[in-house]
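Exam revision sheet. Question 4 asks you to relate a sequence to its structure. Input first:
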Amino acid sequence: MSITASSTHRTGLSTDLLLKAYRLMCTAKEMTVLYEEKVQITAKYVHATSRGHEAIQLAVGLQLKAQDYLSAYYRDDSILLGIGLRPYELMLQLMAKRDDPFSGGRTYYCHPSLKREGMPKIPHQSSATGMQAIPTTGVAMGVQYMSKMGLLPEGEELPIVICSLGDASVTEGEVAEAFQMAALKQFPIIYVVQDNEWDISATAAETRAMNAFEYAKGFKGLEAVSIDGTDFFTCYDTMNRIMSSVRKNPRPWLVHATVPLLNHHTSGVRKEWYRHDLEQAALRDPLPRFRAELLESGISENELLEMEALAYTTVRADFEEAFKAEDPRPEDLLRTILLLHLYYQKQEREVRQEEK
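Answer key, structure tokens:
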């Protein structure tokens, strides 16, 4: 089945969905702005934000279902907002707080792991810079096996697996291994490659011979499409059709989305140190583009202003709440190890009872 990118499918999305997407896009921007304003606090913690990447990320996050699996990379805070996480929860990880829902304050910002009812499952990963490709492809292998063996819940749509990548990571050998196996075995996985043409402080021209879409053509059985990742409507429509298609006809896809990087590479690698394209990149900002398109579609100025105000107040209130949250306690160091030990003991008891 051939799927092509299109920017003309702008009907069928409800006003509620579009306003939610706009609110979350504004939320992502306000988080970036506030992290810079509060640099005396946030500079202590390495972080990167999705500024410039919001459209493709929200198009993914808003369409993931509870049975799905997500492997996010370190710039994917808009995907996490899209699946339903609060800015407050992301900020708990930013500031290494005890109630950080992903790791209890142990891992960097936007390094999620999650098993929560009603949300896609996010396996733990050490650092999402390409090394997530092989284990996430393994998750898709597991989904395929469960489907073939009849182990999935009856009547449930096939789960799909999203592996999010920065384009520079696609030059890594382990990503090629993942693509090879996904193409060979036809796993239900979608690689979403966000291409801002930067590899830390090196340009695309300095680090690669081709982009991810061009590279994917060399993997027989891996279907691919390249889209404008700043156009929310195109991104949503493309992801909707590919995700629906993979659920019905499982196979691997690569979605290459071109985006601008409108923030620092990370908080420790400042854009003003090396970027020569900041004015040009700003012209591709997805937020004003989306705002103009929503006005054109009939959504009112007042409705958009309401979403902007809500995003602003929510982000600032959540930051203050997260800042005041409890830090990890010394005794928490071994808490997870103890819980795992008790869990495995329980599992062993259950196995023994079944054997009897």
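Marking note for examiners. Residues 93 and 268 are 17 Å apart (CA to CA).
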